[in-house]
From TrEMBL:
Leader peptide range in chain numbering: none
Residue span(s) of domain N-acetyltransferase: 14-159
Pfam hit, one: Acetyltransf_9
MF annotations from Gene Ontology: acyltransferase activity, transferring groups other than amino-acyl groups
Name of protein: N-acetyltransferase domain-containing protein
Organism: Enterovibrio coralii
Alphabetical list of InterPro entries matching this protein: Acyl_CoA_acyltransferase (IPR016181), GNAT_dom (IPR000182)
Length: 184
């Protein structure tokens, strides 16, 4: 599905595309190259698995200038089960930074998460101030997750971890969250 959005600070009309897992293969190679360039990581790849809700891609003149994804799964905190969305691969081309694209990506992903009854959105940030402006707060409780490099379960407080409530379910500030899988 394509949605046209005009960014008031930009002179051009940009396109935001919401890609479902079925639509992702059409853009997979372009996204892979974009992520590798932006993160300067030749092995970075897109993650398309059963947890993927969507990739959101911003195009300007049919070129990718920003993208991000969200994966959704059931998580627990103590006896409380909730649906968590993990935002990952937030990437904005260096020439387009500071123009509100990250905020637009986050808003688009949150809209999709709320439509899917996600209770809490999580992300892991290199630049937390950008996400604070979108209503995210520091994740100070430990998370239990699968470390994607060692493929083992681990628990720790991730510096740069952030969360935002999207429903009435409220996380407790001092209880570990079982992520039920990896971080993205």
């Amino acid at each position: 599905m394509r949605k046209l959005l005009a960014f008031s600070s930009l002179p051009t009309l940009m396109t935001i595309i919401h890609l479902t897992p079925k639509e992702l293969p059409r853009y997979a190679n372009e996204l892979r190259h974009f992520l590798r360039d932006v993160f300067d990581n030749p092995t970075m790849d897109i993650v398309c698995n059963d947890e993927l809700l969507a990739y959101v891609v911003v195009l300007e003149s049919e070129q990718i200038v920003a993208c991000s994804s969200v994966h959704v799964r059931e998580m627990t905190q103590g006896e409380t089960r909730f649906l968590g969305g993990v935002i990952g691969s937030v990437a904005v081309h260096p020439n387009w930074r500071g123009k509100g694209l990250c905020r637009s990506l986050i808003h688009a992903l949150e809209t999709q998460m709320m439509a899917s009854s996600v209770d809490v959105s999580f992300l892991f940030a290199y630049v937390p101030d950008i996400y604070r402006a979108c209503g995210y707060q520091a994740l100070e409780m430990p998370i239990h997750h699968v470390d994607d490099t060692t493929h083992t379960w681990t628990s720790f407080v991730y510096r740069g971890g952030m969360f935002k409530h999207l429903s009435q379910r409220i996380l407790l500030q001092d209880n570990e969250i079982d992520f039920g899988g990896c971080v993205y």
